[in-house]
Design brief:
The chain has eleven helices and seven strands. With about 220 residues, the chain is of the alpha+beta class. The chain has one domain. It has a four-stranded mixed sheet. A hairpin with a 5-residue loop joins β2 and β3. It is globular and about 55 Å long.
């Protein structure tokens, strides 16, 4: 099976798509939840009442839950801040999300090239498809690395953070598809999940889903 995929004209692109899909995944410890913020400071928490777990950690996909956008991590055990402090923190996160807009666009273009690759391979052949689509993908990875370096202080990144992310996407340009996941997980700021639930569009349902998720991990 693997030999057939590797020897086919679509083999290169199939492997690239598999790498991008696997790379989009990340693990959440029990009690931690990923969330995004709307322009009105409304919170959208990612909660699964029956999560798929690996070694008691929930498997999530940034591409499915937060495509081309920044997300953050909350914790049920985090210190519960005042409403004003929470709104200030959310405003900072929203500004950070706006600052990464150009990077999200580059990531979307990279995804478009990655999807078109196998289509072009069927028409033009694998070698020409790599020249037409993979080479520009590599150029996008370099451009994104330069952009990250220039905006590292805005993102609150150290030089080592930027070098690590840049090295990953340059050595494997396919990973550019999930650049927003890397930026998201590089930020360690955690807000209290229950406080955030009260700021969601459906606080009661969100709170119930959180408790259901917690009970699942405890095995009740």
């Amino acid at each position: 099976m693997l030999e057939e995929i590797a020897s086919s004209r679509f083999g290169f692109w199939i492997v690239a798509l598999i790498i991008a899909t696997v790379d989009a995944s990340f693990l959440l410890k029990p009690g931690k939840f990923a969330f995004s913020i709307s322009n009105a400071n409304h919170v959208r928490l990612r909660i699964s009442s029956s999560p798929f777990t690996i070694r008691n950690r929930e498997l999530a996909s940034s591409f499915l839950s937060f495509p081309f956008q920044l997300f953050f991590i909350s914790d049920i055990d985090a210190i519960e801040q005042t409403t004003r402090e929470t709104f200030n923190a959310l405003s900072r996160m929203r500004r950070l999300s706006r600052q990464t807009m150009i990077i999200s666009i580059l990531s979307a273009i990279a995804t478009f090239l990655l999807v078109l690759g196998p289509c072009a391979a069927g028409i033009l052949g694998v070698q020409l498809s790599i020249i037409v689509f993979f080479v520009p993908l590599y150029g996008l990875a370099i451009a994104t690395s330069v952009l990250l370096w220039r905006r590292r202080r805005r993102f609150g990144f150290s030089n080592s953070n930027v070098l690590k992310i840049s090295a990953e996407i340059i050595f494997c340009p396919v990973l550019l598809v999930n650049i927003t996941k890397r930026i998201s997980l590089a930020h360690k700021s955690e807000l209290n999940t229950f406080r955030l639930a009260s700021l969601s569009s459906s606080p009661i349902q969100t709170m119930a889903a959180i408790h259901e998720n917690i009970r699942y991990h405890k095995g009740d």
